[in-house]
Structure formats: structure tokens, C-alpha cells
Design brief:
The complex is a heterodimer. Chain A is built from 6 helices and 11 strands. Chain A has helices spanning about 20-25, 30-35, 45-50, 60-75, 85-90, 95-110, and strands spanning about 120, 120-125, 140, 145-150, 155-165, 175-180, 185, 190-195, 200-210, 220, 225-229. Classes of the chains: A alpha+beta, B alpha/beta.
Chain lengths: ~230, ~725
């Protein structure tokens, strides 16, 4: 499962600026998945900007999720422009606002289970320590490593990202992307060795996957719960 | 500096208060006989109480309800305690314990905890803390079941005493924290006497802990709270003097010699038994030496020697030699002091080797550290006299003493390995030579560097314990021996106490790691033993899907050189394959866990989760063990930082049984790290064969380090190469 012939994994430094894919998607000029493919976790310090980053209305979220899920299962790209609320379109007039709106999408996609396109599968967190075997919820020290096993209905898939979402009670904590090089999952799934670079607390982890050769990104559900100590 | 036999000074509560009923007047009379030390009369009355209780039961055959047997069982317990704790008549104690069972006390749920507490006292008296602990854990559970806070307190207090004997400071602290509110809750006038006795037990535990741990809690408040119960509530000279002696020791530990004198003056010396007298003289000698009154110290020492000759206490001779050494040192006669300390060492050696079988593993683990003061004084005195080699040999013997006691058949002549390092090999031994300072916890350490040609000893300036700055440890432990290191190609590390935790191989040195300059092995310092003569390799693994990857990878790496099979034992006898004479090498993949129930007292009590679990006890009695064992599991080479020799983890057990090399993890380790290292290790070993394990280990370490993500380097550092 864990391939020793691959070069050692080292995290890449985050880019200094917002990725172009965000700006393009926010402007309706690119697929939504491109937003999620851009691995970035930016803190939002600016009050005015945070004010702009309201979640999408629930009906828009639901429609977006449905369409992307259907597209994924039909092996078709989910590249239609997102159903952005009309009142927010005016923010895209200038580049800074476009960037802000991109973050709206990014966060909205990541924070609401009913928003995201999901694929039924199995996600298990397992301790990477040779101590007590995993009993229920895995507890891991911040900065230490754990295994995440992902599997989806015997389909060969590629994991393109590991997504960590905080406990719903901690709404002020943003979701995180645990960056990972693409990892092929066989019909029996696969095991990733990932680093819990997360603040302490309860988190849900899942694999974001694409089908071989495809670019539609969906996440496996239900996610696995861990506690970072 | 304190022996379990002296625990007799602490008397546990034999359910102190008389119950109402037909035997109440006999009970009161029996108590009086006990308090004035008239034991024959006491036993006579105990028997009468038992007869009355039995008759009463016959006449009123009501169904047994909880507590109904108390009038029958309580006098039996009182008699047991008198036999076991005061008269030291162990046969008498056993008879009373048999009575407790034969007369049906175990049919009464309120008496089951009492029975287990008595059993624990019995095993404690026989110096078997493991058996004692089993009963105390059972007593604790029963007391919680019946909601009997007094039984609970008694059980916890005795656990604290055992923990203190074994140097388990953390356990003592936890038990104290639990007992404090419990005793306050129990402290009502009707229970004052019983609670005072429990407080005295707990205070004794703190005194024991205080002998080697300056940070141990102050026992004086407990003792001062207990004393009035024995002087006013229910006067008992013997118990009151017992508390006074404990107070004197507490003041001695704190250096208040005037207070020591005050408490000792209040003791009725003429009424003390030999054990009490031994303890009194010991405190007096130490107090006289502390004020520099050598003439008084000599007189008290003569009295100590006289009483020691009369007692059956196995440690008495050690106390005599130890204090004689201190006395001779104070008189400015170092040569004679060295002889006296050497006698104390020899006594300790013979006592350690005579430890009873099943208890030896646990006792040898930590207890000898309590008697290391004589060793430290001897080493200091020998160094002052310029006898560096002699000091080094004494330090080596003290360091390996507990280990040798556990595996006598594999230790030549009962001593450390009898050789000089080969040319190019540097042997480094580090040992603490003074007590820890009460305020700062700091102490003086000495480092020895032994090469084929010469020996050096140098004082060390250690960082504070627990420092994670490896550069500081390198400055403290390696820099003093820079010249010796420059000429070395291999280093044998003989660490003691907290230095067991230091990853010497990974210390920074000359712009890289020490391991880049030399091979490093953590040494048990024992001569060769009979490892299996075979050539085959076996990969043993537990039942966890995450192990599959490592098992396959290791099999592939090993298959290039030797026949290899994999085994997932599912029945008890299948693990026997690990101890086959055919094996040269075994790789074990499992989860490493603490032994349930043993966490409190036995720091090194780990096992590997196989079927059945792999324990150090099983390893120590194995018919054969492979020459090289790799334990790919958390804490598989756990070292106990509060022992001289490192304690008895699984890795040490393999070495003691005869393995030449063991690779294990001293703490928790990431699975991918140990897997990656194992593959690199066996790849390196394929071209070097088993004679060059340290070289292969070094090559694997450096290669794995270069390949892993830097956040995993602390996990890699947990791996150690142990050798005997």
C-alpha cells in the first residue's frame, strides 16, 4: 500500500498569491473543481473581506452539489458556472473582489456536507504508531502522522487531496487541506500516510478523489473522525 | 536506604473499633492487651472472641448479610496483624490467614477486601511486591464495590508504600492525591485511630520516596495528624514511638537536626523491639554525622552493629557497612572507608542475587537504586584516591547488578563483561555520584572513558533533566571525551538513570551526527551467552492489516541472504517458533503496550501484542533466542530512566537470555519509520552479515534519515541498537 520506491514526501510551500484558478472560477471562466484543486489554506484576517464571505444560500448549494455529483457519476466534467447568488455578481467587477468571492466558493464547498459532491465509500483513520491498536476514534499528536484508508465501491481512483474539516461546533476554524501527492487507489482502496498538521480538536478526514484520467473531484463519505491533541 | 523489612514499623489498621454484641467486652480487653504489648494475652482473648462469635452464629442461624461475619473475622485480622507486623512470626500469620478463610470470612462481602489486604501484607513481608500488588488491586476493587472508604484507603496506602519501595515517584504522587481527600472524609472521632494508622502508612511511603527523591511530598503533616490518636485517643506507646521515629527521619531528610533530637528523645528506647531499635540507631548515626559529632556517631554505630547482629533483617549488614563507611570518611580515613563501602556493595550484590524467583524481575528493576548511595560514595572515594579503574569496575558492576540477578546463567562469574575494549572501541559510562539537591534536583555526575590502552574519569555538567536540546547534551556528554572520540571507530554507551533516555547516536558531533563518525551501541555490559546457532530468519507478526506491508518488505529484504518464513501465531504454542534453535534472526512486528494492571508500579512492564502476548518473562525462560532480534513495535526497548541498568524491557530480556543484538524503539514510533529502517537495515546486513550489525545499523540509520520527512526524525531517533 505504502510505496517505498517513491521519493520521500515533503510539503510544498504555499504560493504567495491567490491561484489563478480561483480567480477564473470565481469569474465564471473555469470549472469549480479547479478551485478545489488549488491547494491553499489562507487565513482571512480582514474583517471587510470576511464579511463578504457569506456562505451560499442553501438552495444554491444543494443544486451545485447535485449537479456535480451527477456529473461525476456520469463521468462528465462538472464545469458549469456555479449558481452564484445574483447580488454577489457585482463584487466581481474588480480583481480584489474576484479573489474574495473565490474564497467564498472555496469555503462554501468545503464547509457544508450537503454542498460538496460526495461518493459513498469507506474512510478509516488508523494510528500509525505501533502502540495500542486503533479502537474507536484515532487520537494523534499535532504534527504527527497517521494512516487514512480510503475505498469506494471497488473503483480505481486517484486521491488528489486529503481534506480535514473541523468539528461543526467550531465554526470559526477553517477547513484544512492536508496536501498529498496523487495516490492511486486500487479496487481494494489504499492507505495514505498523512501528517496531522492541524490545530488541536476534533476533525473529520476524507479523501478527495478523481477517477482515473478524469478531473472531476469528489470526496468520499462518510469521513473518518480523529482528535488532534 | 530503607528496607521493606523495616516496614514493620508501620502498623496497618486491623479494624480498630470494637463492635457491639456479645463479645464486645472481650474485644475491649483484647485491644488493651495489644496496646500494652501483651501479645499472649491478646491471642488468648482473640480466640475467646472467635468462640463467642461462632457460638452466636450457631444459636441464631440467620442468613448471612453483609457485615454479619465481622465479629468473627475482625479478631482474626487483629491477630494476623500482630503476628505479621509486630512479632514477625510468619507461620503464626499464615495460620491466622488460614483461619480467616476456614471460618467463612470470605462469605461476607465486607471481609473480602480485608482478606486481600492481609494477603498483600503477607506477600510484602516476603518481599514479593508483585503478589502483594495483585491482592491490593483486588482489595481496591472490592472496596469500591462495597463502598467501604476505609478499606479503599488502606489498599491505596499500601500501594503507595509498594510504589515508594520501587521508586515509582509518579505513582506515589497519584496515590497521595487520591488519599488526601479520602482520609479527610474518613476523619471522624469514631475512626480516628484507624485513620491515624493509615496516615502513618502513607507517611512511611513518603519517607521511603524521600530517601531518593528530594521532591517527594512532606510526610510531617500526616505524621503530626496521626500522633494524637496514639497518645490521647487510644494510647499505645509502640505505635506512638513508631510515629515519632518516622517524624525524626522526616526531619533528618530535611536537615533539621534539633527536631530530630526532640523526636528521638521522646521515644521510649527501652520499650522498642530490635527492629525499632535498629531504625532508631540508624537515624542517630546519621544525625550525629550530620552535626559532625564523630565520637557520638562511633558510639551509636557500635550500638547499631550490636542490634543488627541480633535481627533477621537481611539489609541490616548493609546498613552497618554503609554507615561505617560514612563514619570513616568523616574521620579522614579514606582507605578504610573504601573497604567499608565495598563491604556494603558486596552485601548488596549477594542480596540481589538471592532475590526470590518470580519477584526478582520486578524487584531487580528498581529497588537497588534505593541502595545506590553506598555505591556512589564508594566511586567518589575511589576516584579521590586515584583508583579510576577500580571506580569504573564498581560502577559497571552496580549498573548491571539487577540485570545479572535476573539471568544468572548467562553472566560469567556474576560480574560485568570481563574484558578491555578492543582497539578502536571506546566505552563510555556515566554515573551520578551525589544525591540530588533538594531544591534544584541537580547532582554531580562522572563520565568514564575506557579504551584498550587507558581510562579517564571526568566530571560532567549536565543540562537540566528533560532538556530536548541535543547540542547541550552533546557538549555535556561527548565534548569532555573529544580526544578519545577522535581515535574511536566504535562507541559502547553504558548509561544510567535519566541518561538512558539520551539518543547518543543522534547527538550532534563535529557538524553531523555522532553516528556519522563512529558506530554506536547501547550496551548491557554482559559477557557472551548462548544465542541460537541457526541460520534461518523468522518474521513474526500480529493480527493487524497495517503490518502486511512491513512483513512483505522485510521478507523480501531478508530472502536474498537466508531462508525466511513469516508467522502469525494464533495459538499459544505457535510462538515457540521464535525460540527455536534454528534461528539466527527474528523480526517481530506488533503493537507494544503496557501490561494491564501493572502500570502503576512497574515502569518497564511492556509486552508485544501477539497471540499469546510476548512478555519478558517468557523471553527470559526461552530455550533459545536468535542472535539478532528486531522488535518493530512501540516501547519495545523501553528503558527505565530511574534505574542504573535501564530496567527490564523486552529488548533487555532478549539480551539477558543470550541475544547479541536487539533493535527496538525506546518510545512510540511511527510504523512507516520502523518499516523503512528495517528494510534498509537488512539490505545493509546482506552485504555485511551478522558480525557487522553495528555497521549495518549505522548505514541504515543514515540512509533512512536522508529519505524521511524531517518531521519523522524524532521517531527515527527512538530506534536503538542494544548489545550485550
Amino acid at each position: 500500500m505504502h510505496d517505498h520506491d517513491q521519493p520521500p514526501f515533503r510539503p510544498e510551500p504555499p504560493p504567495d498569491d491567490l491561484p489563478a484558478a480561483w480567480l477564473a472560477a470565481a469569474a465564471g471562466a473555469g470549472p469549480l473543481e479547479a478551485v478545489r484543486a488549488a491547494d491553499l489554506d489562507l487565513p482571512i484576517d480582514d474583517d471587510a473581506l470576511r464579511d463578504l464571505l457569506q456562505p451560499l444560500p442553501p438552495d444554491a448549494r444543494a443544486r451545485l452539489a447535485e449537479r456535480c455529483a451527477a456529473a461525476f457519476l456520469a463521468d462528465a466534467p462538472c464545469d458549469a458556472p456555479p449558481p452564484i447568488p445574483r447580488k454577489r455578481r457585482r463584487w466581481w467587477i474588480s480583481a480584489p473582489l474576484a479573489a474574495a468571492a473565490a474564497v467564498v466558493l472555496f469555503l462554501a464547498l468545503r464547509t457544508a456536507d450537503d454542498l460538496d459532491a460526495t461518493l459513498p465509500g469507506e474512510v478509516h483513520a488508523i494510528t500509525a504508531l505501533r502502540a495500542e491498536p486503533t479502537q474507536s476514534t484515532v487520537r494523534v499528536e499535532a504534527g504527527k502522522w497517521l494512516f487514512l484508508e480510503c475505498r469506494a465501491g471497488g473503483r480505481p481512483l486517484t486521491v488528489v487531496e486529503v481534506l480535514a474539516e473541523p468539528d461543526p461546533a467550531r465554526q470559526d476554524t477553517p477547513p484544512r487541506s492536508l496536501t498529498w501527492r496523487p495516490h492511486e487507489l486500487g479496487p481494494d482502496g489504499g492507505r495514505l500516510h498523512i501528517r496531522a498538521e492541524l490545530p488541536p480538536g476534533a476533525w473529520s478526514l476524507t479523501c478527495v478523489v478523481t477517477e482515473a484520467g478524469g478531473d472531476v473531484r469528489v470526496r468520499l463519505a462518510p469521513p473518518a473522525a480523529i482528535v488532534v491533541e | 536506604m530503607i528496607t521493606p523489612a523495616l516496614a514493620l514499623l508501620v502498623l496497618l489498621a486491623p479494624y480498630a473499633d470494637c463492635l457491639g454484641g456479645p463479645a464486645e467486652r472481650v474485644c475491649i480487653e483484647r485491644r488493651r492487651a495489644h496496646d500494652r504489648g501483651d501479645f499472649p494475652r491478646m491471642f488468648e482473648l482473640v480466640d475467646r472472641e472467635i468462640d463467642i462469635a461462632r457460638l452466636h452464629r450457631l444459636l441464631s442461624p440467620a442468613p448471612t448479610v453483609p457485615g454479619a461475619r465481622r465479629p468473627l473475622c475482625q479478631p482474626i485480622e487483629a491477630a494476623f496483624v500482630a503476628c505479621n507486623e509486630q512479632l514477625l512470626d510468619l507461620d503464626c500469620a499464615d495460620r491466622r490467614l488460614d483461619d480467616h478463610v476456614a471460618l467463612g470470612c470470605l462469605d461476607d462481602p465486607t471481609q473480602r477486601a480485608r482478606h486481600d489486604i492481609m494477603q498483600a501484607m503477607r506477600w510484602r513481608r516476603r518481599q514479593d511486591p508483585v503478589a502483594a500488588m495483585v491482592h491490593l488491586v483486588a482489595a481496591e476493587a472490592e472496596a469500591r464495590e462495597t463502598d467501604d472508604l476505609h478499606d479503599l484507603a488502606d489498599s491505596l496506602a499500601l500501594q503507595a508504600e509498594l510504589a515508594a519501595h520501587l521508586g515509582q515517584r509518579t505513582a506515589v504522587r497519584h496515590l497521595l492525591a487520591e488519599l488526601d481527600p479520602l482520609l479527610a472524609q474518613l476523619d471522624i472521632p469514631a475512626r480516628a485511630h484507624a485513620v491515624a494508622r493509615t496516615r502513618n502508612v502513607l507517611a512511611w511511603a513518603l519517607l521511603l520516596a524521600g530517601e531518593s527523591d528530594p521532591a517527594a511530598a512532606d510526610p510531617r503533616p500526616l505524621l503530626l495528624a496521626a500522633l494524637p490518636a496514639f497518645t490521647e485517643v487510644r494510647p499505645n506507646r509502640s505505635e506512638a514511638d513508631n510515629v515519632r521515629l518516622n517524624l525524626a527521619l522526616a526531619e533528618l531528610q530535611r536537615g533539621d537536626l534539633a527536631a530530630v533530637r526532640t523526636w528521638l528523645d521522646a521515644v521510649d528506647t527501652g520499650a522498642l523491639g530490635d527492629e525499632g531499635l535498629l531504625w532508631l540507631r540508624l537515624i542517630e548515626v546519621r544525625a550525629a554525622l550530620a552535626v559532625g559529632d564523630l565520637e557520638l556517631a562511633a558510639r551509636r554505630h557500635d550500638q547499631l552493629a550490636a542490634v543488627a547482629a541480633r535481627t533477621s533483617d537481611p539489609m541490616a549488614a548493609w546498613f552497618v557497612a554503609w554507615t561505617q563507611g560514612m563514619q570513616l570518611e568523616a574521620q579522614g580515613r579514606p582507605d578504610l572507608a573504601i573497604e567499608a563501602y565495598a563491604r556494603a556493595e558486596d552485601r548488596l550484590e549477594s542480596l540481589t542475587r538471592a532475590l526470590p524467583g518470580p519477584a526478582a524481575v520486578q524487584l531487580a528493576d528498581r529497588r537497588p537504586l534505593s541502595f545506590a548511595d553506598g555505591t556512589r560514595r564508594l566511586i567518589r572515594a575511589q576516584l579521590a584516591a586515584g583508583a579510576v579503574d577500580d571506580a569504573l569496575e564498581r560502577a559497571r558492576d552496580a549498573r548491571s547488578r539487577a540485570l545479572r540477578a535476573v539471568a544468572p546463567r548467562c553472566t560469567a562469574a556474576g560480574r560485568s563483561r570481563d574484558d578491555l575494549p578492543a582497539p578502536g572501541v571506546l566505552r563510555l559510562l556515566y554515573v551520578r555520584v551525589t544525591p540530588r539537591d533538594r531544591a534544584t534536583g541537580r547532582a554531580e555526575w562522572i563520565g568514564f572513558a575506557r579504551t584498550h590502552a587507558r581510562v579517564h574519569a571526568r566530571p560532567l555538567e549536565l543540562p537540566e533533566a528533560g532538556s530536548i536540546d541535543l547540542a547541550r547534551w552533546s557538549d555535556a556528554l561527548l565534548a569532555p571525551f573529544a580526544d578519545e572520540l577522535a581515535d574511536a571507530r566504535a562507541v559502547e554507551v553504558l548509561a544510567t538513570e535519566e541518561l538512558h533516555d539520551i539518543p547518543f547516536h543522534a547527538l550532534p558531533w563535529r557538524g553531523g551526527l555522532l553516528l556519522e563518525r563512529v558506530t554506536v551501541r547501547f550496551d548491557l555490559d554482559l559477557g557472551p551467552c548462548d544465542a541460537s546457532p541457526g541460520r534461518a530468519a523468522l518474521v513474526v507478526h500480529g493480527d493487524d492489516p497495517t503490518f502486511t506491508s512491513e512483513v512483505r518488505a522485510v521478507q523480501n529484504a531478508l530472502a536474498a541472504v537466508r531462508p525466511v518464513t513469516a508467522l502469525r501465531p494464533a495459538r499459544a504454542h505457535e510462538l515457540d517458533a521464535l525460540f527455536s534453535a534454528d534461528l539466527a534472526l527474528a523480526h517481530v512486528v506488533a503493537h507494544g503496550v503496557r501490561t494491564p494492571g501493572g502500570e502503576l508500579l512497574f515502569a518497564a512492564d511492556h509486552r508485544l501484542l501477539l497471540e499469546p502476548p510476548l512478555t519478558r518473562e517468557a523471553i527470559l525462560v526461552a530455550p533459545h533466542v536468535p542472535g539478532l532480534v528486531y522488535l518493530s513495535a512501540c516501547t519495545s526497548s523501553f528503558v527505565d530512566a530511574e534505574t542504573l541498568g535501564g530496567g527490564l524491557g523486552l529488548a533487555h530480556a532478549f539480551l539477558l537470555r543470550g541475544a547479541r543484538h536487539v533493535v527496538g524503539a525506546v518510545d512510540r514510533i511511527d510504523a512507516t519509520v520502523t518499516e523503512r529502517f528495517a528494510v534498509r537495515f537488512y539490505e545493509a546486513l546482506a552485504v555485511r552479515e551478522l558480525d557487522a550489525v553495528p555497521d549495518a545499523w549505522r548505514a541504515a540509520y543514515l540512509k533512512t534519515r536522508a529519505e524521511l520527512h524531517e518531521s519523522l526524525e524524532p521517531d527515527l531517533r527512538m530506534l536503538r541498537l542494544y548489545a550485550r
